[in-house]
Every structure is written in structure tokens, then in C-alpha cells.
Amino acid sequence: MRRPPGRSRRAAARPPARALARLAEELRDDGVHDDITTRALLPGPRPGSAVILAESAGVLSGGTAAVHLARSVGLGARLLVRDGAVLRRGQAVLRLSGDVRRILGVERTVLNTLMHLSGVATATAAAVRAVDGKVAIYATRKTLPGLKDLEKAAVVHGGGFPHRRDLSDGFLLKSRHLDLVTLPEAVRRLRASGALRRPLQVEVRSVRTALDAVRAGAEALLVDNLPPAGAARIVQALTDAGLRDDVWIELSGGITPATAHRYVRCGADALSLGGITHSAPSLPFHLRLVASHGLRPA
Fold this sequence. Notes:
CATH superfamily of the largest domain: Aldolase class I
Oligomer: single chain
CATH architecture of the largest domain: Alpha-Beta Barrel
CATH topology of the largest domain: TIM Barrel
Number of strands: 12
């Protein structure tokens, strides 16, 4: 039975309410109701609307979160394209309406959200294209503090898979665990813990450890920090031993969208890339007011 760790793509693509609420804290931290510049220029409400435009091609993520941010301060918000859509340069993605002072108050936080999450989705899509469907692209737990659920959703929007959300999402025996407990004993203890339905994955860096892990009952392997040739040797050894069909194999460690294609022929099931979440380049957006009465001299 081959069982990858982590949650389903469908579940990960819809961030929980707590993630959106945490993001909304950024509005308060940015002083959304204390914009002294705008309030000095506009002491009273001023109705208007604005549109947010993509400044380059990419994949949209964070649109639903941006709508939530805008509506949390009483603005109207309408998403013009769905999360996961491929964007062209200059495409309008979100329309805001209401008090112009509030539009300007949420501008930076909304743009930051779209820029980072769409950057994650775009980097993921680049990795997916690089492997041409021959292996799956997974995220890791290397996420920015407070943003894991939104970043995992962005990975799904880019065509990838979320992997484990947190430490309760599946067993992962790492080398540091195996410095403390032998592999057979570690597997025995995990199976005796009562969490029988959790997938069991073991981090390996050698042929011997990989064979021992699968024979001990591992359902998944994390082949960590090996070059393509080293990873391929492990997969071949499992094949030669008649064990390949019993285990899901993930390669990780320093893989980027630019290097992912080098690992396609290793025979693994998936590649996991930390950089698509923690180091994805932002996708630029900007806000343009499209209807307001304008400023008049006081």
C-alpha cells in the first residue's frame, strides 16, 4: 500500500477560517483605521471603486483571502478570476467598492497577500511544468510563520500537492529520531501508538536504510539531500528487491523549479520543494482607483 503523507488537495485549497482571521490581523497591525494621511485629506466618507491589476503573467492565489480582507472592513469586493487561474499581464483580478478611505487603508495588505501567494502558485506551476507530469510536486513544512494554510492552498492553485500541514498529519521518522531509537524499534513504537491510520514515512539517505525501512513497514520514504544519481540508486535497489511497489518515494533537499527536471528519471513518485513557499518571488500587482469624486481643495 503506497500512502503519501498529508492532506488532500481539495481540503488544502480552502484555507480554514482561522487562517483568514489571522491574516485580517495584518490590517489592524497596519493601522487600517488610522491612516493619518488619507483621513487628513478626506475627513468624511468618499464613495468610489478600485480595481487590482496583475503586473506580470503568473498564477493567481490569495484572491479569496483578499476578498475576505476587503469585506472585513465593510468594502464590497468581487473576484474577477478564480484562484488557480493563469494571469496575463495587465489583467484585472479584483474589484473593490465603498469608502475610498477604506480602499486605501486595505490596499497594501491586500496587495501583499496577492503578491506573495500568487508568487507561490506561480513558482509551483513552474516546477509542475518542468517535470511535465512525470512526478508530483509537493510543498514542505518550510512555510512563513502564520501563513502555512494560505501557502499550502497556493501550492494547490499552482498544480502541486500540500504534504503534511502539521506534525499530527502523519508519521515522519527523521535521522534525528533514529539517532535516539533504532529503526525497527521506532516503527514498532509508532505502530503501537494507536494512530494506525496515519501514513508512516522514513527519511533515508542510503540504500541500506531504504531497504530496512520498507522491510520494517514504512509506507513512504523521504530520500533527502541526494543528487539524482544517488536517489536513482535507492529506487533501483528497491526495484531489484521487489519492494518498489510497496512504497511511495519522495525526493527532497535543495530542489528548485529550475533543477526539478533533473530528478524526473530517478523513478520517484514526488519531489518536494521548500523554496516554492519560503522563497517564492512575489508576483507584482497594483491598485488603480477607477471611480471617485477626486480630491478638492479644502
